[in-house]
Amino acid sequence: MSASPDPKTAKSAGRVSSLDFQIEEMYEPQSFKRRAITSMVQARYPVVAVIFLALIALCAVFATQLAPKDPNRIEIFDTLKPPFSTNRQGEMEYILGTDSTGRDVLSRVVYGARISFFVGLAAVGLGGGAGTILGLTAGYLGGRVDDVIMRLADIQLAYPFILFAIMMLTILGEGVLNLILVLGIGQWVTYARIARAETLVQREREFVEAVRALGATEWRIMFRTILPNILTPLIVIASFNVAGVILSEASLSFLGLGVPESVPTWGAMLANSRNQLLSGSWWLAVFPGLAIMFTVVSLNILGDWLRDFLDPRLRGSGQGL
Amino acid sequence: MHKYIIRRLLLTVVVILGVTLLTFLSIHMSGDPTFFYVSERASAEERQAARERLGFDRPLHIQYLDFIVNLARGDTGNSLTHRVPAFDVVMERMPATLELTIGGFLLSTIVAFPIGVLAATRRGTMTDGTLMLGAMLGQSMPSFWLGLMFILFFAVTLRWMPVSGHVAFLKPLFEGRIDEALTNLPEAIRYMLMPMVAVSVYSISRNSRLIRSAVLEVLRQDYVVTARAKGLNERAVMIRHAIRNALIPIVTVLALQFAFLLNGVIVVETVFSWPGVGRLVFDAVNQRDVPLVMTAVVLLSFLFVGANLIADLLYGFLDPRIRLE
Amino acid sequence: MNKKIPLLLSLLLIVVLGLVPLMSSAQTVPTPDDDTLVIAINGEPGSMDPAQVGGSTGGSNFRIMMHTFATLYELGQASGAIDPYLAHSFTVSEDGTEWTFHMHEGLTCDDGEPLTAEDAAYSFNRMADPANGFTGNSAGFVVASTGFVEARADSELDVTIVARKPQNRAMRLGLYSEVLVHCKDSYEAMSFEEAARNVVGSGPYSLAEWVPGEYMSLKAVEGFGLRPQGFENLVWRFIPEPSTAVAEVITGNVDIYKEFPANQADAIRNSGMAEARFFPGTTRTYIGFNLNPDAPFRVENPDDVGAQAIMRTDVRVALQYAIDTDAICENLLLTTCVRATSLVNPSNADHPTLEPYPYDPAKAEELLDAAGYPRGDDGVRFSLEMPARRLTGAMAPEVVLATAQMLTDVGVQTEAIFQESGDWVAALITHDLGPLYFGRTGGSEWSAQYDMADIPGHEAGCGEAETNYTHWNNDFWCTGWDTLPSLTGDPEAERELEIAMLEEFYNDPPWIMLFAGPRTEAVSNRIEYQSRADYFITGYSAMLKDDM
Fold first, then answer.
1. Which of A96, A118, B261, C52 makes an SS bond possible with A106, Cβ 3.0 to 4.6 Å?
2. Given this model, what pLDDT does residue C381 score?
3. What pLDDT, on the 0 to 100 scale, is given for residue C346?
4. Between A and B, how many residue pairs show a Cβ–Cβ distance under 8 A?
5. Short-list B265, B116, B206, B319, CA closest to A320
6. Which residues on adjacent β-strands are paired with residue A58?
7. Beta carbons of C130 and B36 less than 8 Å apart
8. Are C332 and A278 inside 8 Å of each other by CB?
9. Backbone phi and psi for residue C374, each to the nearest 5 degrees, phi listed first
10. Helix A105-141 / helix A227-254 crossing angle, nearest 10 deg
């Protein structure tokens, strides 16, 4: 799956060169974009993954237009209709069937894209953002600040995540924002540790010295000089992380924690289908299940490719898998 | 080395304090736990009496310090729902959770190894593609869901497996009844198999992908190329160089995996009526059984810290270049 | 070291791990023996102290302790007739405050201790003593609702229970029968910790083995003549996940599982292993209107139209027509049920003048229009929030959501908000829950007054009374409740007042009346067992079928 034209050598070349060269080499738009597309097309699978994810994103953005029905509309006389069922007027209405309260499964899957995606991105954005900043700060400033942040990370690592999520969601109550908060807090340590380690390396580099000698503020060095250079592994991890967060949401739904009933999510649909499983209402599980599966697989393929393309050093380290 | 371990132990104290403080604050943030221990018909006076009896009327910092001081003395207080020492309640469930976690850990390591190595050696072939596709799929299903599917298929449809339940193995072992533990072993494994697989499929998939890329990475290194050039046969190259060197990054991740598995176990226990800490803690949080929640969090945190410590030690042991200070 | 060892070893382990289950699966999974009955319950008992039943630990320990402990008497299901148990009869003092129970001779507890009036009195006093810190059904509910003062042994076999006031015979009759009797010497010898984990019982079964989180097995007490003992062993398995419990029923490993999810009925029936029963329950299910003028949602938001609208009787009446209980029962609970006409269970609401409110959304809209709440441009008259809990059966989220949808359909936009149990209870008992709430309250099948006791009279504060969760301040009702005890000698006048009060409830409803939540129970084909309308499972009365 790795077909990038050995970016490894390119990168290490960048390491010994000046700051300007470094940034240009990594982020010069034309060549970067072209290389990315070439590499992706060569690898084939990432293209499929990107198309699928784009489709999901489309569902998420245009859910209101795409969903045939209101996803929360209960049709008490049309409960548990199998796919391609007609409604009471004899019209074909339920393409993917209905659930135990007569809500349209197709509409809920379409709307579910919105939440699964939004929660995934937001939680990773929150956790990743906070983790990166904390890691960067810890690594750059060192000393007392480093100690405090890393002890916080140790505390977080010693706290079984699922226990933390149960506690917080029981206590905060259900809600999309609460869920994002909890899942985000669950992620920050990974980013903080990597950001810190990378910062420790970058801090000692010549171009940082150079920028400092030119009189740049600490703030500027941290966020303008170092941050762009440590982003690559973090972006790779984030792509895998979104998949993990989507699965975590499903597990929390199984425990009855997470978002309100009025917000359809794939995880909650899958979890709720369990009462109908033994009775053979397979469509309640299969469609949200497939949605989760395809999304997660796509994100993983994309993550694999991103890693190979951006930072093959990570390949054997086990980070982010 | 000794210094390192002592420092880690001191750190553990800090971590436990942090974890308990966090738990304590959040459980009290959600309002007055007294309401869980009075009848729906209790009058305001009765509620106040209950609040005083349970000690929830005291200032929060006093309650917390009280818990910590008692904890240091080895007294966790009585569970409010079980009405026996919270420590005992958690500890009698711990062996079952460990069984599943350790079992899942072994399984995810043992199965992932051959898959990863095979896929790496057959890189780019049909075998590699199939195995990696399987691994991708294995990483895309929530464990509770797999568990229910196993029940449906292997227990209800095929009747090969028991639906749910548990035969104790670690508990008699810990209590010194080794004969009983050994007699129980076959049945224990039979009951454990479905939950164990459900818990570890994600990790198996993740590990085998990881092992594959670690091996591939090593194969690309100069010394392997040299070894090949020297005319060593492929198997010798794999075993002497590739696998051994690939072990280093793998081991760190595997040890962290233990903590990850424990998270999954807590969810899967519910599906298989497994008598572990997972369901216990979930119920305890729901009932605001403060001493029980706190105790469970402390004990599970110890487990996590322990797993992380072992990971670090192993890392240093495997890779002499890393010195622990 | 041979280099092949690690790889070979791992392969070997996989093979071994794979073979162990396959070898043992040659035997099919065993079903329970003929002398063992297996009952699945979702919760698990926390404490097995007979003074600590239900409450925060859930009711599961009560279900089990009904087998290990006896009570003075029981009340027949539906009939409400007294079914003697440890006591064979009782007498009531002239002023009605003292009830004296006459107990059988020669009773013993599991440890051989003789069981006498002293022990019965001890059982009442022990659970009621605040110093002991018990909560739950006995200590919380029975003591408060019967006005319990003390219990005393008058002689070897006569125990007297004293209440503050003579009133509410039905309530006392019902609740005294729920107090589990245990032996004084046995329990005084134990600490509270020991009493939580050990059982010295007085009932038909004794505790044989308890594996926390897994199961509890009971053994029939030899020579116990007061109740049947259909099986030598009763095993209670704790299975938190309903689908798993149903799978156990289908594979023949569980004989009784109450409250299975209605949608799994076909799976149970098709398995040929068990019967899927549906029957009316006793738990009254309703939507409460919170009428408390000081409730936070009213105080903080004085312009909220919905919160003000439901203060009006005509609005509350109008909303009764919006709910189609038949459709809910038939399509979501897969059974039929009778709509309630008041707070009293349909089965004991024998009042001639009241017909359940019919489902008539057009009428609901008409009445709401007339009340001055026309639909706005967006089709909404006003909006309400409806807190609910995530429960099972007749309280399942599906039912809650369906009612919210029906209210929304007549222009009263209703959002169901699922809350966690503690928050819910805290707001409920302080009368702060709402504006609507989806509630339930335990009930009986045999006494209207038992059900009516939720809303007591002026003496208890009327609207302010703790259990009057809707804060319904109805003078006629409250005066009536206070008058009822004085009519104890005149059943006809008592009945007349009861009916008038229920009519008042019907006409000035503080609830949207729904139904007594129907129950489900899976019962294995190998046993004969009479399902109970209430929460309990009387495993002792189950019998193996003759032809098995």
1. A96
2. 96
3. 76
4. 139
5. B206
6. none
7. no
8. no
9. -70, 160
10. 140
Q: Which CATH number characterizes residue A274's domain?
A: 1.10.3720.10
pTM beyond 0.80, yes or no: yes
| Residue pair B269/B97 in contact by the 8 Å Cβ criterion | yes
pLDDT at residue B325 tops 60: no
Q: Which two tokens stand for residue B84?
A: 């026996």
Collapsing DSSP to helix, strand or coil, C311 comes out as coil
Residues of B in contact with C251 (CB under 8 A): 155-156, 159, 163
Q: B168 — phi, psi (to 5°)?
A: -75, 135
**Cβ separation A315–B23 shorter than 8 A:** no
Torsions phi, psi for C266 (to 5 deg)? -60, -40
Of B91-95, C134-138, C270-274, C512-516, the one with minimum mean pLDDT is C134-138
Question: What ipTM, to 2 d.p.?
Answer: 0.90
Whether residue B305 contacts residue A160, with contact meaning beta carbons closer than 8 Å, is answered with no
Which H or E element spans position C217? strand C215-220
pLDDT exceeds 60 at position C15 = no
Task: Encode burial over C335-344: b for 16+ CB neighbours within 10 A, e otherwise.
Answer: bebbbbbbbb
A26 is a domain residue: no
Contact B144, B236 (CB under 8 A): no
The total domain count for chain A is 1
Contacts of A257 in chain C (CB under 8 A): none
pLDDT of B27 > 70? The answer is: yes
The C-alpha of B35 sits at a distance from chain A's nearest C-alpha, in angstroms, of 14
Structure tokens belonging to residue A44: 């084939």
Residue labelled with tokens 């203060």 = C311
Q: Which residues of A are less than 8 Å from B11 in CB distance?
A: 151, 154
Q: How does pLDDT run across C111-154, given as a tens digit for each residue?
A: 999 999 999 999 999 999 988 888 777 787 788 888 899 999 99
Residue range(s) defining the domain that contains residue A266: 41-66+112-317
Interface of B with A in 9-28 (CB under 8 A): 11, 14-16, 18-19, 22-23, 26-27
Dihedral angle over CA of B51, B54, B57, B62, nearest 10: -170
**Domain-located, residue A12:** no
Contact B281 A154 (CB under 8 A): no
The interaxial angle of helices A176-203 and A227-254, nearest 10 deg, is 150
Q: Is residue A14 part of a domain?
A: no
Examine residue C32 and say whether the peptide bond preceding it is cis (omega within 30 degrees of 0).
no
Q: What is the DSSP code (8-state) at residue B238?
A: I
Question: Each residue of C434-482: pLDDT tens digit?
Answer: 899 999 888 887 788 888 888 988 988 899 888 899 999 999 999 999 8
pLDDT at position A18: 38
- In angstroms, the CA C69 to CA C119 distance is 12
What's CA A78's distance to the chain center, in Å?
Answer: 36
User: Is the per-residue pLDDT at C184 higher than 90?
Assistant: yes
Q: Concatenate the DSSP letters of all residues of C202-216 into one string.
A: -SSEEEEEEETTTEE
Is-contact A129 A192, C-beta < 8 A? no
Written as six digits, the tokens of C192 are: 């509270």
Tell whether C147 lies on the interface with A, counting CB pairs under 8 A.
no
Residue in C closest to B165 by C-alpha: C214
Query: Is residue A264 assigned to a domain?
Result: yes
Strands C215-220, C233-238: parallel, antiparallel or unpaired by DSSP? antiparallel
Q: Answer whether C263 sits within 8 Å of A262, measured CB to CB.
A: no
For chain A, the chains sharing at least 3 beta-carbon pairs closer than 8 angstroms are B, C
Nearest-by-Cβ selection for B27 from A162, A167, A270: A167
Per residue in C210-245, pLDDT tens? 999 999 999 999 989 899 999 999 999 999 999 999
Residue B214 per-residue DSSP state:
H
| Residue A262: pLDDT band with limits 50, 70, 90 | confident
- A171/B30 CB distance under 8 A: yes
Q: Decide if A277 and C243 are in contact by the 8 Å CB cutoff.
A: yes
Chain-centre distance for alpha carbon A198 = 21
